[in-house]
GDSL esterase/lipase (Rehmannia glutinosa), 394 residues
Amino acid sequence: MSIAFPPGIEHGWFNISFGVWDGYLCLANACNIQVDVWVLKQYGVAESWTRNFILRKSWIPSDLWPCPLFPIKTLRNGNILMSRRSGETLISFDPKTKTTSAAGSRIICPFQALYQLGDSTSDTGNLVRVLPVGPTLPAARPPYGNTFPGTPTGRWSDGRLIIDFTASALGLPLLNPYLNKNASFKNGVNFAVAGSTALNSSFFASRGIIVPSSVGSLNDQLNWFRTYLSSICSTPQGALQIVVPGNFPIGCFPYALSAFASNDSTMYDEIGCIKSLNNLATFQNNNLQVALDSLRREFPNVVMIYADYYNAFQTILRQTSIFGFDPRTLLKPCCASREFNPVSPQFCGSLGVPVCQNPNRYIHWDGLHLTEEAHRRISKIIVTNILLRIKCTA
């Protein structure tokens, strides 16, 4: 599904920003004299675009103009909290007095380090360093890394991942993978390994499921984390700020659409995603949030933030053209894997597998993973909300 722009707004204008404001898709269009802020009141209905307010240049501090601003949330006093596109500066706009004021010069806390656990959605180069298999995997060769940094890094995408954009938003350098022993870990470490499982291998073995030993499990990553902490801390303590992402709508991914293809049209939603798989992801996400609520009660001094990957992904999927993606490639990968198994000779990175000319127009990279542009767009939706909920400490 694609939605037309609001009246008078042309696609491709440089100073258009998108986000989510109080649960609505929001568009902020900055021209030479003002910022027009629109919201989509009824999801999927172009006619429901409503111009909520105008922010004139004369109401905005000169040092914030012309960088585009977009609203994040309505405060209890009725003011509207707005952020720069870069996600670093907040201003509060009073719609009654038509005035703005600083709401905190920086929304990013002075964090010194960031640590990542996970799988291929966040692996920045660990699995490709696991011998003997790692260096032979697709992420170790082109076209992986073609968009950023121009050469393969072990990221399972054409470029940066959500964790990369998160680090940048915190003012930190990109995290180096733990297995790159020559790298600097001054500002954090990435322990994520592509293919890694949340449960230990014994769980799968007892059920006759074979998991490659090279990918390990979450427990292995936690052991790495403990080893690293013991090398830099005399008395290692637990984390006080944790972000836990939910699952993507897996029924919209090419690998799932291929594996569960059916002639039964009732299996699919209006976009073409498999409803039962998305329901499964929603079930998992709901239970994950219940578990987080329980952990918050058990550890009241720890900030635990749920990152809603599911709805962020759905936002860009359902507003494809607005976010700059090609509606014709909505559920197709840029790197056109014919088999969605990374060790298959028909997978992305293998000889003869075609790659699109412009990955920025695609959401999906290889059928299992997303493009850098999709990661960037998803990050813009979720990162600012995450940063607003993080507690800064002295």
In short: The chain has three domains: 16-102, 110-239, 240-394.
